[in-house]
Amino acid sequence: MNIVMLAAEFPPEMWGGLTNYSYNIAKYLSAKNQVEVNVFPHMQSLMKYASNLEFVVKIGRKVQQKKARNEVDIVYAITFQPHFSGIGFAAKQLHLPFVSHGVGADVYTSNPLYVFARKTAYKISDRIICGSNFQRRIMVKEGASNEKVSVVLGGVDCETFRPFAERDEFRKALGVEDKFVLLALGRFDKRKGFDDAIKALTYLKDIDDVVLLIVGMGSERTYLEELTKSLALMNKVRFLGFVSSDSLIKIYNAADLFVAPFKSLGRDMEGFPLVVQEAQACGVPVVSTFSAGVPELIEDNSSGFLVPESSPQSLAQKIHELYENEKLRKRMGQNARKRAEALLDWAITVSKIENLFREAYIS
Questions:
Q1: How far apart are the C-alpha atoms of 252 and 344, rounded to whole Å?
Q2: Are 183 and 42 within one domain?
């Protein structure tokens, strides 16, 4: 199948969850299909409006030329974007299938341009993909056809992210071989709940050997460092900054628990966080929150625990329970790995996307 893919973020220009997600979908689709990725240019000046229009016209013409040469079977857009809906409309004029894929902020935002883009996509898309039933309900309530919207869960490489026998070596290299290691990872945004992960330590004063490793970067770092100092937790919290993919896998393996106390801040909330999937693929139990689509990634009381949002005390209670019960911790880690292999692996995820493409193509 010849696929023209539209991506809002793609390496090497961007980094983060959406970039990783788009890249891996393109990578796994390319194993059996011809995929051409077209990345939307991110401009920070007044020229961006001209650039937006230029992008729509340029890609629209390219699709038209490919159609004339029988070199395109489907147009596929990752995220709801106003310019992608414009290209989708052009594709439909050429009688080409158009598939839209909602991911996170593009599904939740109330920005009028994005609301317009979503509602346009609902009408012109032959199939609509999202990452959780939580998102699906939002789309259907907003006007998307119930029959068009399909949930495709997951997206993690279980061959790369897996338990390693060298766990003790990784822990020693990090200087945490004698610690109970909590790991929190991601972009430092308020909705990620890093502050609650830090505050939870104040309810774990009876655990002398606990340490929280925080990996990532972002605008909240100064606040989080100051919070750590104000709570006198400098000896229990370590900020590791940005780390390479190879190092990241080692850090996952060094952890006893992954903590992800996500928050829903109005319409600013999580989609289907990659870090939760990576942790589970590495066999690490996760303690997270009943936030947006997160409960669909974690099987509560099996592959991890779910607690209320904005409740450091509840988070601490579950951490304490797993600290005290090594057998439960081990069993949850094994269940987490099995869940990742069965439901979240990229091979499974992209196979489902390909099936939806075929349905769109023959409908």
A1: 17
A2: no
CATH number at residue 233: 3.40.50.2000
Q: What is the pLDDT of residues 277-287, one digit of tens each?
A: 999 999 999 99
Q: How far apart are the first and last CA of the chain?
A: 15
Token pair for 171: 């822990």
Question: Mind listing the pLDDT tens digit for each residue in 316-357?
Answer: 999 999 999 999 999 999 999 999 999 999 999 999 999 999
d(CA 225, CA 69): 57
Q: Is 4 within 8 Å of 36 (Cβ atoms)?
A: yes
pTM of the model: 0.92
Query: Which of the 8 DSSP states describes residue 363?
Result: -
Report H helices in 245-325: 245-254, 274-281, 312-324
Rounded to 10 deg, the angle between the 112-124 and 82-93 helix axes is 20
* Domain encompassing residue 210: 167-343
Helix (H) or strand (E) segment spanning residue 128? strand 127-130
Q: Kindly state the DSSP code that residue 201 receives in the 8-state scheme.
A: G
Check whether residue 177 and residue 296 sit in a common domain. Answer: yes
176, 233: one domain:
yes
As separate numbers, helices (DSSP H) first and strands (DSSP E) second, the chain gives 14, 12
